[in-house]
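Internal QA ticket QA-208
Title: Verify multi-chain structure generation after dependency bump
Assignee: T.L.

Test input:
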Amino acid sequence: MDGLSLQGINKTFGKVHAVRDVSKDIHSGEFFTLLGPSGCGKTTLLRMIAGLELQDSGRIILDGKDITGLPAIKRHINTVFQSYALFPHLNIFDNVAFGLRSRKVPGAEVNQRVKDTLDMLELGEMTKRFPHQLSGGQSQRVALARALVNEPKVLLLDEPMSALDAKLRAQVQIELRRLQQKLGQTFILVTHDQDEALIVSDRIAVMKAGQIVQYGTPAEVYDFPKNKFVAEFLGSANLIEGNYKDGLFHTPIGIFELEKPPPWEKGLIAIRPEWIRISDTEPVKNGLRATVTEIIYRGTNLDISLTPGPIRLRTSTYSRIKIGDELWLDLAPKEIAVLNE
Amino acid sequence: MNKLIIWYGELITNQKLLKRGLFFLVPGMLWLILFLVLPGLILVLVSFAGRGDYGNLVWEFSVENYTRLMGYGLFGWTLDYVYILLRSVWVALVTTGLSVVLSYPLCFYIAKKPLRTRYLWLTVVIIPFWTNMVIRAYAWFLILAPELPFAKLAAFLKLIPPGAPLYPSALAVYLGMISMFLPFVALPLFSSVERLDWTLVEAAQDLYASNFRIFMHAILPQTLPGLSVGIILTIVPAMGMFVVPDLLGGAKYMLVGNLIQQQFGASRDYAFGAAISMALMILTLFSLYMYKRKSKGIDLI
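Actual output:
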């Protein structure tokens, strides 16, 4: 099989079970993201793939070959470190050439490949500069070039954007996505930034306490969160608890219709704030009469809190809503996500 | 001059600031002039003087002390003094080199200890610092004594006659010198090793580097500041060391420090002693200059 296969990976640090029985196939050419809060084991998992950490049990298969027992220097996998870890005493060219020179690639080929990679990442002008003379964004691209020049079978990225400011980060995320699509290489990204995960990934694995709790395309994970953790970690969600009986979902704030019956009798539903529509008249079904208690102006939109609930919704800044207004909310059945767990 | 300025938050005039600066500076400057600059100049003058019949200084200008150091003496030309000078440089280099080689594993070992015991280990390295040099040299007498296994082993291997101690000898000098200077290298090096960014080592591993490449690119550049201080702190005093080679090397392994001490002591030839001192000083400065040139961009201190 092409790609990377993780089979029953476990890792403990003392009493902490950092990674629990993770099994996942990552296809060749896929942009795969491990998303989760700090301490969820995502970086540990990445380091085990890189060969910088040894798993307690489990196997790692790369392109059909078992690499479980190979050290980092024998794995055709390269990493972009969170701190970039550029060699401060080497200039940009020598930094990027490091991996090729370690493998004793002939000089002329080194020059050509380093030059091509630097040009591709628009770093051609600064080959003679040293890491301390670079901005954060440039350092990040050098780190990327230093890994990519080796043409790894898998490129690992350990929170590579965390040192960049918000605006640059948004730009770099899109560039990274384009680069990966152009190269068609397997990228595995570790991040705690849900926007980043949604923007760049083909598939996302959401991790919590050492386990993958949900896995799928960005749209699948965002639109159909399986549980409370995913619903709240990706974006925000109104979580409403209630009982399902006689084909309707009974909650303290009202009775709602669902698209299809949930697999439980008592449980949670999630509605994204931006999925709720405001209506002047009572909607045909799933209407909720609510009073505005708080308005937060966010430039691109308004975040409004209402009672009962509290229900949060997101609307355009054009709406002339004041605190104390009574509104009809349309919680359409197709916008309600049923949480399985 | 009397304009008010704010100096790191303090409201003050330039004039007052200057006065205060001088007040703090002058004692130190006087001390240096009286006890370093003046004696240094006197040493230069004395090195061109001569020796009277009773060991007194004769104030007549000559370069005879220097030609004598170069080997031109009453009994023709010998390289004895040049040889001692070169040997001193050699001993200093070997001492420094071996101290560095021994310090690296030592520092990594200590740096990897848990914080609780780390300073205990450091203290063990520092204890020689607190112990008098002469006492330590005599301690080596005991260790190298003929009754102890080291000398017995050497005798068994027919390296020394049976019943003889391992001193005075070149080996004893090196043992003494390295045990003396190891903390001077290890302590500054440790401060660098302790702060080592291991991510760079991981990055080098990730980029297929051999162990040698990992050391050269991920460890050496990071530990260079500490290593540099350690080398300077060792090589400079090691070149002029006289107590250790005197006790452990004796006449068998004479270094320039002993030679100088001899001139100011038993031989009472102050002028010649001053000339040797000058030569040692020039050699030291030359070594530092070479070191600075070889290690471009690295600050000496």
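Spot checks passed. The radius of gyration of chain A is 24 Å.
Status: verified.
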